[in-house]
Glutathione synthetase
Amino acid sequence: MYPNGYKEYQANLAPLTLFPTPFPRIEFEKAKSIATAYNKLYANIVSQHQWLLDAVRSLSEFDTTFTGKLYQCYLEAEKRGIVQPVALGLVRSDYMYDTVSKVIKQVEYNTVSVSFAGISREVGKLHKFLNDSGLYTKSGEKYYGEDGLIVSDAADGLARGLREAVSYYERTHSSPGKTIVLFVVQPNERNAFDQRHIEYSLFEKFGIVSKRIELPDVTASVKVDNQTRKLFYQDREVSVVYYRSAYGPGEFTKKETWDCRILLESTLAIKCPSLLVQLSGAKKIQQLLTSTAILDKFLPTDEKKADLVSTFCKIYPLDDSEDATIAKKLAFEKPENFVLKPQREGGGNNIYKEEIPGFLKSIPEKDWAGFILMELIHPPVAKNVMLRDGELLRSGTVSELGVYGSFLFNEKTGKIIHNEYQGHLLRSKISSSNEGGVAAGYGCVDSLYLI
Ligand code: ADP
Ligand code: MG
Ligand code: MG
C-alpha cells in the first residue's frame, strides 16, 4: 500500500523505436502549414452547427451506443442551457506518406483526447541524445545530420492551447491566476505519464495549476454555482475542463457517467472539447467533407485550401445516397483496397481488406450507414528496432505522422480567438499490421528524421 490509499502501481514503458524514421521534409512542412486551415474548417463546421447536428442525428440512428448518446447528451445539455459559447479544440490530424501519389494523405482528424504529445517529445529527445553522444555508430560519430533530427514541442504546445483558454476565461469571468484546469481522465488511466508532461508544462511555463479527476466521479466531487453556472473543484474555480477520457462507449457503462458529461457541458467552464467539437471529429464528417460542395460551404477560401484538399483520400458512404451504390460494389469486389471504419476512436475498431465482405454480410444492410469505406494509403516500409514490454523486435515498419493544433473559438458566432500549430508525433508499427494505435497495442512512439 502506498500513501493516500493507493494500491500498488505497476508502470509499463510506452513502446518506442530505437531509431528515428526518415520522412520527406517537404511533406512534413506541408502538414504543419495546413494545420490552422484544418482547425478553421472544423471551427466553421461547429459554429454553423445545424448541418453538423443533422449529420449526427442521422448517424445516431445507426450508432446508438456512442455517437447517438453523445448527440442525446448535447440535446440534454442544450435543454439545461449551454452558458459557455467558447470551446477549445486540442486536435491532432494524422497522415501517412503515400507511395502511390507521393504526397501525405490524411488518416483522420482527432478532436478528443489526443495523446502522445508528452511522450513524442521524450522519444525525440532520446533519439537526439543517442545520436549526439555517438551511440548510433561504432566510431562515436553522429549518424544523423543535425538539421534532420527534430524534437517535437507538442507537450508545451498543448499547454499553450490550454493557457489561451484559461486566459480567455479569466479575462471574461474571473481574474488572472485564480482558476485551474480540470483534467478529466479514465479510471485506471494507463496514459497518465503522457498527460503529466502537459500538466507540468502548464505550471512551469504559465503558473497554471491543474487537478485530475476520474470521469465517473465528477458529479459527486464538483460544485456548480446555481446562478453563475461556475464550476468548482476542491473549492478552486475551474476555467477549463480538459477531457483525456469520454471517447469510447466502454467508458459509459452507467447512466451516471453520461450525467457527468452533461453536467460539465452545462457549466461556465470552457470545455476541451465541447460535445459539438467532439462530434465534428466523427469519421462520417471526414467522409462528407470530401465532397467539394460541402467543403466549400465550410471553407470557401483559404490560401492553404489546395494543399489541404491534396491530403484527402477517397472515402465513400455506405448509406442510401448515390455515392454509396458504387461503394457497396467496391467493398465486395475490391476489398483489398479499403478499410471499413465505424464511428469510434482509440484504435482497434476498423475492419480491413478481405475481412470487409464477411463483416458487412454479418450485419443488416441498413446498419452499413454507420460505417465509412476509405481507400487504403500505401506508406513506405522502413527498418527499425522496437522496444516493447522489455523485448526488442527488429522489423519493417510503417509510420503515421500526427500534427497537433489548438484553437479557441465561439461556437455561436464562429469567431476564432486563437488558432495555432502545436507540434508533431510520429508513430510506427510493424509493416504487416493494419492498425497503428500505440495505447491499443499496435504501434510505437517514434521520431522524425527529415530527408
Ligand atoms: P482511430 O480513431 O481508432 O485511431 P484510425 O482512423 O486512425 O482510427 O485508424 C486506425 C489505424 O488504422 C491508423 O492508425 C492506421 O494505422 C490504420 N488506417 C486507418 N485508415 C487507413 C488508411 N486509409 N490507409 C491505411 N491505414 C489506415
Ligand atoms: Mg482517432
Ligand atoms: Mg487514429
Notes: The chain has a mean pLDDT of 95. The chain has two domains: 16-313+377-450, 314-376.
